[in-house]
Amino acid sequence: MVEEEEEEAEKVAPRSREHVTKALHLASKATLAEQVHTQNILNQLKNIYMKQIHPLEVAFNYDALNVYTITEGEIFAKPMVTVTGPWSTGKTTMLNYLLNLEETKQLYTGAEPTTSEFTILMAGEPPKTTDGMVLVTDRKKPFSSLSKYGQGFLEHLAGLTMPSELLELITLVDTPGIIENRKQQERGYPFNNVMKWFTDRSDLIFVVFDPTKLDVGLELETLFRLLKGREAQVRIILNKADSVSEQELMRVYGALFWGLQPLINVTEPPRLYIGSFWTKPYQTQPELFLKEEISLLDDINEIVQNRIEKKIAFIRHHAILVRIHALLVDFYHKAFRQHSYLFKNSDSVAADIVSNPEKYKIYQSILAFNVSKYDLPEPHIYEEFFNITALPTYKELTAHCSYFSGCLLDNIERAINSDLPNLLDSVHPQSCKSKQSSCSGVEGKK
Hints:
Elements: H1 2-10, H2 18-23, H3 32-59, H4 72-75, E1 80-84, H5 91-98, E2 118-123, E3 128-131, H6 132-137, H7 150-154, E4 157-162, E5 171-174, H8 191-201, E6 204-209, H9 218-226, E7 234-238, H10 246-260, E8 271-274, H11 286-305, H12 307-339, H13 346-355, H14 362-366, H15 379-388, E9 401-402, E10 406-407, H16 408-425
Parallel strand pairs: 1-5, 1-6, 2-4, 6-7, 7-8
Antiparallel strand pairs: 2-5, 3-4, 9-10
Helix pairs in contact: 3-12, 3-16, 12-13, 12-16
């Protein structure tokens, strides 16, 4: 009798996925003209970055700040969605559902912690798995800078390529489940640093819970510290919500918010969605859970539709930070030149300037150069920076000029003030709004 009931349960018709296809516009493909136009925009963005922004990064050693560095692969990368959260909350099952892989289960799932590595899901044929060492070697992909986390991490990194309409639009990242009694060193690599790399580059970050795993421990606290300032990209997902009664769901919902409240110290907390992300029919509240799921799919669609605009805006903000860095180093260097004398120890002068920038009015002076005080790094960051490369080794900004290439500062300011805003205006030209016109300039010429 029990076996017959189990067989009947397996025969229950799965939920329709029509709403997934509709919300993500999977049935509609970009025209050739639209694809060419998008590629042209990204090529122009790459040229602006490589010719007008990157040279100033190199001249003033911006990478030594240990901040976000941009590669060519990242400029052309699709939007990224990273899925994280406690173990066995249905993260991988959710990905199987979104990718319509539940029958084949290409991503293994189970009740015990099953995902022990970072798996990057990408579109491509034929289906194949790529190990971490090969993945970071491919400069066409945006993962080359992950190599800095060492061989121990690369052994826990994999790429999975498969034909998928959704992966033609975005890249998905499945992460190891958070286990609160595990110490970071037991993973064999700097897990927190790797998580920060992925969250910094993610357009959306799904943090998945279920009604049985609401406890907040040290590793989850660390995750939310890494997400500070990224709250707009975070979506809290209470999965398997139909496994409890309506009354119990209200208690679970409240308990989850109560547990997360100390970790999310912002006026507007991340959005929280409830649902059950697989094709099995909802056990309770089908209308509510379907609406919640569609809202989450709309969030994914939004990052796809705004991909180019966000990329241009991000590069422009990055350029602003590079300019501020170059100006700060220049002001430190000017102070060093002004206070270095023939019979004075130059090392002690440099050390005093780096340790006491307020004494030399470095941070006050830079505000006169159209710099927001809210974008200024903390002074202790530059103490560490000048420990890596000594202050006297830098040239002043005016020395970085040439007859053919112009001045590096002028080039980056032109990118910030005109070239990137103009490129943003060209993303949706008036001609593209008409389906009878070409976006690329290649088609439709008379």
